[in-house]
């Protein structure tokens, strides 16, 4: 007996997106919990039954993953865990003033990195990052495809990653 077409398509989608979602969780919660949260994101997405009907399943999966991460933070706050122990980072915390300075310096570097991008690309990136709009909402508001939104955000993120790599 063969699997339904939607299951086969989801399996291909899973293989294509697993590393990206797992990388997101590794950056947010660390290596130990990333695999479980990645699995949970795909399970929730598949369980929603929306895979076959979505125009931008990648964006929907990103939203599912982000919501799982935010729920995890809320649960930790309720339990009184404000900052989970990260054994990989045993260095002493730099003084508050130095952290604020480094943060301002990094923000300036991000703005310098985004400045050469087109006005439309910057606007799309800021709509997503600052206003928290989904790819679909941005596409609807600007009258462009979801894929165009995704490509422009990827372009802006690539520039931001280069800046972040220089500052670490």
Automatic annotation (TrEMBL):
SUPFAM superfamilies: Sigma2 domain of RNA polymerase sigma factors, Sigma3 and sigma4 domains of RNA polymerase sigma factors. The keyword Transcription applies. One of its GO terms (molecular function) is DNA binding. GO terms for biological process: DNA-templated transcription initiation. Residues 13-79 form the RNA polymerase sigma-70 region domain. PANTHER family: RNA POLYMERASE ECF-TYPE SIGMA FACTO, RNA POLYMERASE SIGMA FACTOR FECI-RELATED. This is RNA polymerase sigma-70 factor, ECF subfamily. It comes from Sphingopyxis indica. The lineage of its organism: Bacteria, Pseudomonadati, Pseudomonadota, Alphaproteobacteria, Sphingomonadales.
């Amino acid at each position: 007996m063969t699997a339904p077409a939607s299951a086969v398509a989801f399996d291909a989608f899973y293989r294509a997106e697993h590393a990206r979602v797992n990388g997101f969780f590794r950056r947010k919660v660390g290596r130990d919990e990333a695999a479980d949260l990645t699995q949970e994101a795909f399970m929730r997405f598949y369980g929603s039954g929306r895979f076959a009907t979505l125009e931008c399943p990648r964006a929907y999966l990103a939203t599912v993953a982000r919501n799982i991460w935010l729920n995890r933070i809320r649960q930790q706050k309720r339990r009184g865990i404000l900052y989970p122990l990260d054994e990989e980072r045993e260095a002493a915390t730099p003084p508050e003033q130095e952290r604020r300075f480094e943060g301002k310096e990094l923000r300036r570097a991000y703005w310098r990195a985004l400045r050469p991008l087109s006005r439309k690309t910057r606007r799309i990136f800021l709509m997503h990052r600052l206003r928290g709009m989904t790819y679909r909402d941005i596409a609807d508001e600007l009258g462009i495809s979801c894929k165009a939104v995704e490509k422009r955000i990827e372009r802006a993120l690539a520039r931001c990653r280069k800046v972040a790599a220089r500052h670490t």
